[in-house]
Amino acid sequence: METVKLSKVKGFFVVLAILFFSNAPNLAAEESPPFTFVMIEYTGGSWQDVRAEQEAHVKDFIPKFMKWLNLKKIVSAREKTEVLRLTDPRIFDYPMLYINGHFTFQISDLEKQNLKIHLERGGFLYIEDCGGDTASLQKFGSFAKCIHDVVQSIFPEGKFQVLPPTHDIYRFPFEFPKGLPNMYGDNNDASPESPTKRRKGQGGEGFFYRGRMIAFYSDADTCCGWDYNGTAQWGDIPFKVGANIVTYAMTH
Protein backbone atom coordinates (compact mmCIF):
# COMPACT_ATOMS: atom_id res chain seq x y z
CA MET A 1 0.00 0.00 0.00
CA GLU A 2 2.84 2.42 0.89
CA THR A 3 4.56 1.57 -2.40
CA VAL A 4 1.47 2.59 -4.35
CA LYS A 5 1.23 5.88 -2.45
CA LEU A 6 4.91 6.62 -2.98
CA SER A 7 4.66 5.93 -6.70
CA LYS A 8 1.72 8.30 -6.93
CA VAL A 9 3.67 11.01 -5.12
CA LYS A 10 6.68 10.44 -7.38
CA GLY A 11 4.41 10.60 -10.41
CA PHE A 12 2.95 13.89 -9.22
CA PHE A 13 6.36 15.51 -8.90
CA VAL A 14 7.46 14.14 -12.26
CA VAL A 15 4.47 15.85 -13.86
CA LEU A 16 5.34 19.10 -12.07
CA ALA A 17 8.95 18.84 -13.23
CA ILE A 18 7.89 18.27 -16.84
CA LEU A 19 5.56 21.28 -16.72
CA PHE A 20 8.21 23.48 -15.10
CA PHE A 21 11.09 22.57 -17.39
CA SER A 22 8.93 22.73 -20.51
CA ASN A 23 8.32 26.39 -19.62
CA ALA A 24 11.82 27.06 -18.31
CA PRO A 25 13.30 28.39 -21.59
CA ASN A 26 10.62 31.09 -21.76
CA LEU A 27 11.11 32.02 -18.14
CA ALA A 28 14.86 32.20 -18.52
CA ALA A 29 14.50 34.33 -21.63
CA GLU A 30 12.56 36.97 -19.73
CA GLU A 31 14.77 39.84 -18.62
CA SER A 32 14.15 42.28 -15.82
CA PRO A 33 11.91 45.08 -17.11
CA PRO A 34 13.68 48.41 -17.67
CA PHE A 35 13.31 51.13 -15.08
CA THR A 36 10.27 53.30 -15.78
CA PHE A 37 10.08 56.88 -14.56
CA VAL A 38 6.53 57.39 -13.25
CA MET A 39 5.38 60.99 -12.89
CA ILE A 40 2.30 61.55 -10.74
CA GLU A 41 -0.43 63.80 -12.11
CA TYR A 42 -2.67 65.45 -9.53
CA THR A 43 -5.60 67.88 -9.39
CA GLY A 44 -4.85 71.60 -9.44
CA GLY A 45 -1.42 73.07 -8.75
CA SER A 46 1.15 72.96 -11.53
CA TRP A 47 -0.89 70.47 -13.56
CA GLN A 48 -3.50 73.19 -13.86
CA ASP A 49 -1.60 76.49 -13.72
CA VAL A 50 1.60 75.58 -15.60
CA ARG A 51 0.52 72.40 -17.38
CA ALA A 52 2.72 73.14 -20.41
CA GLU A 53 5.78 73.00 -18.14
CA GLN A 54 4.68 69.69 -16.64
CA GLU A 55 4.16 68.27 -20.12
CA ALA A 56 7.65 69.48 -21.08
CA HIS A 57 9.01 67.42 -18.18
CA VAL A 58 7.13 64.37 -19.47
CA LYS A 59 8.09 64.70 -23.14
CA ASP A 60 11.55 66.24 -22.93
CA PHE A 61 13.29 66.69 -19.55
CA ILE A 62 12.74 63.20 -18.12
CA PRO A 63 13.46 61.34 -21.40
CA LYS A 64 16.81 63.19 -21.58
CA PHE A 65 17.60 61.96 -18.08
CA MET A 66 16.58 58.38 -18.95
CA LYS A 67 18.75 58.51 -22.08
CA TRP A 68 21.69 59.66 -19.94
CA LEU A 69 21.13 56.77 -17.49
CA ASN A 70 21.27 54.34 -20.42
CA LEU A 71 24.32 56.01 -21.94
CA LYS A 72 26.24 55.84 -18.64
CA LYS A 73 24.94 52.32 -17.98
CA ILE A 74 23.63 53.32 -14.55
CA VAL A 75 20.44 51.39 -15.13
CA SER A 76 18.47 50.11 -18.11
CA ALA A 77 15.68 52.66 -18.48
CA ARG A 78 12.69 53.31 -20.70
CA GLU A 79 12.94 56.72 -22.30
CA LYS A 80 9.17 57.16 -22.33
CA THR A 81 7.72 58.72 -19.17
CA GLU A 82 4.68 57.08 -17.58
CA VAL A 83 2.14 59.58 -16.25
CA LEU A 84 -0.31 58.15 -13.72
CA ARG A 85 -2.71 59.37 -11.09
CA LEU A 86 -2.54 57.84 -7.64
CA THR A 87 -6.00 56.34 -8.26
CA ASP A 88 -4.49 54.16 -11.01
CA PRO A 89 -3.65 50.63 -9.75
CA ARG A 90 -0.70 50.52 -12.14
CA ILE A 91 1.29 52.61 -9.65
CA PHE A 92 1.87 49.36 -7.76
CA ASP A 93 3.80 47.98 -10.73
CA TYR A 94 6.63 50.49 -10.24
CA PRO A 95 9.12 50.86 -7.37
CA MET A 96 9.52 54.65 -7.56
CA LEU A 97 6.97 57.42 -8.01
CA TYR A 98 7.88 61.03 -8.80
CA ILE A 99 5.94 64.17 -7.95
CA ASN A 100 6.91 67.79 -8.54
CA GLY A 101 5.40 71.25 -8.82
CA HIS A 102 5.26 74.89 -7.85
CA PHE A 103 1.92 75.35 -6.13
CA THR A 104 -0.67 73.86 -3.76
CA PHE A 105 -2.58 70.89 -5.19
CA GLN A 106 -5.48 68.67 -4.16
CA ILE A 107 -5.26 65.00 -3.31
CA SER A 108 -8.19 62.74 -2.43
CA ASP A 109 -8.47 60.24 0.40
CA LEU A 110 -8.24 57.37 -2.09
CA GLU A 111 -5.04 58.85 -3.54
CA LYS A 112 -3.58 59.14 -0.05
CA GLN A 113 -4.57 55.56 0.73
CA ASN A 114 -2.94 54.23 -2.45
CA LEU A 115 0.25 56.21 -1.83
CA LYS A 116 0.36 54.85 1.71
CA ILE A 117 0.00 51.27 0.47
CA HIS A 118 2.64 51.78 -2.21
CA LEU A 119 5.19 53.13 0.26
CA GLU A 120 4.40 50.58 2.96
CA ARG A 121 5.00 47.80 0.43
CA GLY A 122 8.54 49.05 -0.16
CA GLY A 123 7.95 51.77 -2.76
CA PHE A 124 9.74 55.10 -2.84
CA LEU A 125 8.55 58.67 -3.47
CA TYR A 126 10.86 61.20 -5.14
CA ILE A 127 9.70 64.79 -4.56
CA GLU A 128 11.07 67.79 -6.46
CA ASP A 129 10.14 71.31 -5.36
CA CYS A 130 10.15 73.63 -8.38
CA GLY A 131 9.63 76.75 -6.25
CA GLY A 132 8.32 79.94 -7.83
CA ASP A 133 8.43 83.69 -7.47
CA THR A 134 7.04 85.21 -4.28
CA ALA A 135 3.96 86.75 -5.92
CA SER A 136 2.93 83.44 -7.55
CA LEU A 137 3.47 81.45 -4.35
CA GLN A 138 1.37 83.95 -2.43
CA LYS A 139 -1.38 83.63 -5.03
CA PHE A 140 -1.34 79.88 -5.62
CA GLY A 141 0.25 78.51 -2.45
CA SER A 142 3.43 76.49 -1.97
CA PHE A 143 3.95 72.99 -3.36
CA ALA A 144 6.65 72.40 -0.76
CA LYS A 145 4.30 73.01 2.18
CA CYS A 146 1.51 71.06 0.51
CA ILE A 147 3.54 67.91 -0.15
CA HIS A 148 5.09 68.02 3.32
CA ASP A 149 1.59 68.22 4.83
CA VAL A 150 0.29 65.41 2.59
CA VAL A 151 3.06 62.94 3.44
CA GLN A 152 2.92 63.83 7.13
CA SER A 153 -0.85 63.31 7.20
CA ILE A 154 -0.49 59.86 5.65
CA PHE A 155 2.24 58.82 8.08
CA PRO A 156 1.69 60.89 11.24
CA GLU A 157 4.29 58.84 13.14
CA GLY A 158 6.96 59.50 10.49
CA LYS A 159 8.94 62.70 9.94
CA PHE A 160 11.01 64.68 7.47
CA GLN A 161 14.66 65.16 8.38
CA VAL A 162 17.40 67.18 6.69
CA LEU A 163 19.90 64.61 5.45
CA PRO A 164 23.59 64.91 6.33
CA PRO A 165 26.11 65.00 3.45
CA THR A 166 27.26 61.53 4.51
CA HIS A 167 23.90 59.92 3.68
CA ASP A 168 24.02 57.10 1.09
CA ILE A 169 21.85 59.04 -1.36
CA TYR A 170 24.74 61.51 -1.76
CA ARG A 171 27.42 58.82 -2.11
CA PHE A 172 26.36 56.28 -4.74
CA PRO A 173 27.06 56.07 -7.59
CA PHE A 174 28.35 59.67 -7.46
CA GLU A 175 29.91 61.53 -4.54
CA PHE A 176 28.38 64.80 -3.33
CA PRO A 177 30.49 65.60 -0.24
CA LYS A 178 28.51 68.77 0.47
CA GLY A 179 25.12 67.11 0.14
CA LEU A 180 22.44 68.10 -2.37
CA PRO A 181 23.77 70.64 -4.92
CA ASN A 182 21.64 73.76 -5.31
CA MET A 183 21.05 73.76 -9.06
CA TYR A 184 18.48 76.52 -9.23
CA GLY A 185 17.60 77.70 -5.75
CA ASP A 186 15.90 81.08 -6.13
CA ASN A 187 18.42 82.39 -8.64
CA ASN A 188 18.48 80.78 -12.08
CA ASP A 189 21.65 82.62 -13.12
CA ALA A 190 23.95 81.46 -10.33
CA SER A 191 26.27 78.47 -10.60
CA PRO A 192 25.74 75.39 -8.39
CA GLU A 193 28.62 76.46 -6.14
CA SER A 194 27.56 80.11 -5.72
CA PRO A 195 27.75 81.06 -2.02
CA THR A 196 25.16 83.82 -2.48
CA LYS A 197 22.42 81.69 -4.01
CA ARG A 198 19.52 81.07 -1.62
CA ARG A 199 17.86 77.70 -1.33
CA LYS A 200 14.11 77.24 -1.47
CA GLY A 201 14.32 75.20 1.70
CA GLN A 202 17.01 73.41 3.69
CA GLY A 203 18.30 71.16 0.96
CA GLY A 204 17.57 67.45 0.69
CA GLU A 205 15.20 65.90 3.23
CA GLY A 206 14.30 62.29 3.84
CA PHE A 207 10.99 61.12 5.24
CA PHE A 208 11.54 58.25 7.65
CA TYR A 209 8.89 55.71 8.56
CA ARG A 210 9.54 52.62 10.70
CA GLY A 211 13.27 52.95 10.22
CA ARG A 212 13.21 53.29 6.44
CA MET A 213 13.51 56.38 4.25
CA ILE A 214 10.41 56.12 2.07
CA ALA A 215 10.60 59.55 0.41
CA PHE A 216 13.22 62.07 -0.65
CA TYR A 217 12.46 65.78 -0.94
CA SER A 218 14.71 67.98 -3.08
CA ASP A 219 14.58 71.78 -3.21
CA ALA A 220 17.18 71.96 -6.00
CA ASP A 221 14.82 71.85 -9.00
CA THR A 222 16.98 69.03 -10.33
CA CYS A 223 14.37 68.08 -12.93
CA CYS A 224 14.70 71.37 -14.81
CA GLY A 225 18.46 70.81 -14.97
CA TRP A 226 17.80 67.68 -17.07
CA ASP A 227 16.51 69.92 -19.85
CA TYR A 228 19.96 71.36 -20.55
CA ASN A 229 21.50 67.98 -21.31
CA GLY A 230 24.83 68.94 -19.77
CA THR A 231 25.14 72.25 -21.66
CA ALA A 232 24.41 74.68 -18.80
CA GLN A 233 26.89 75.90 -16.20
CA TRP A 234 26.21 72.95 -13.89
CA GLY A 235 27.08 70.37 -16.58
CA ASP A 236 25.88 66.86 -15.80
CA ILE A 237 25.36 67.48 -12.07
CA PRO A 238 21.53 67.26 -12.38
CA PHE A 239 21.85 63.87 -14.11
CA LYS A 240 24.21 62.59 -11.42
CA VAL A 241 21.90 63.75 -8.63
CA GLY A 242 18.99 62.00 -10.34
CA ALA A 243 21.08 58.87 -10.80
CA ASN A 244 21.81 58.74 -7.06
CA ILE A 245 18.12 59.11 -6.23
CA VAL A 246 17.05 56.39 -8.68
CA THR A 247 19.83 54.10 -7.45
CA TYR A 248 18.79 54.61 -3.83
CA ALA A 249 15.14 53.95 -4.64
CA MET A 250 16.02 50.72 -6.47
CA THR A 251 18.41 49.37 -3.82
CA HIS A 252 16.64 50.29 -0.58
Strand content: 15-25%
The CATH superfamily name of the largest domain is Domain of unknown function DUF4159
| Mean pLDDT, all residues | 86
- The helix/strand class is alpha/beta
Alpha-carbon distance between the termini? 53 Å
- The CATH architecture of the largest domain comes to 3-Layer(aba) Sandwich
Series of H and E elements: HEEHHEEEHEHHEEEHH
Low-confidence stretches: 1-30
Count of domain modules:
2
CATH topology of the largest domain: Rossmann fold
**What CATH first level of the largest domain would be assigned?**
Alpha Beta
Number of strands: 9
- Please outline the major beta sheet: 7 strands, mixed
How would you explain this protein's 3D organization?
The protein is of the alpha/beta class. The chain has 2 domains: 1-30; 34-251, 3-Layer(aba) Sandwich (Rossmann fold). It is 41% helix and 15% strand. It has helices at residues 2-29, 46-49, 51-71, 109-120, 134-140, 143-154, 222-225, 237-251; strands spanning 38-40, 43-44, 82-84, 96-101, 105-106, 124-129, 159-162, 205-209, 212-218. The strands form 2 sheets. A 7-stranded mixed beta sheet has the order 3-1-4-6-9-8-7. The protein has a two-stranded antiparallel ribbon with strand order 2-5. A hairpin with a 2-residue loop joins strand 8 (205-209) and strand 9 (212-218). The protein is globular, with a radius of gyration of 22 Å. Residues 1-30 have low confidence and may be disordered.
Question: Which short descriptors sum up this protein?
Answer:
disordered N terminus; 9 strands; alpha/beta; 8 helices; 7-stranded mixed beta sheet; Rossmann fold; 2 domains; two-stranded antiparallel sheet; 252 residues
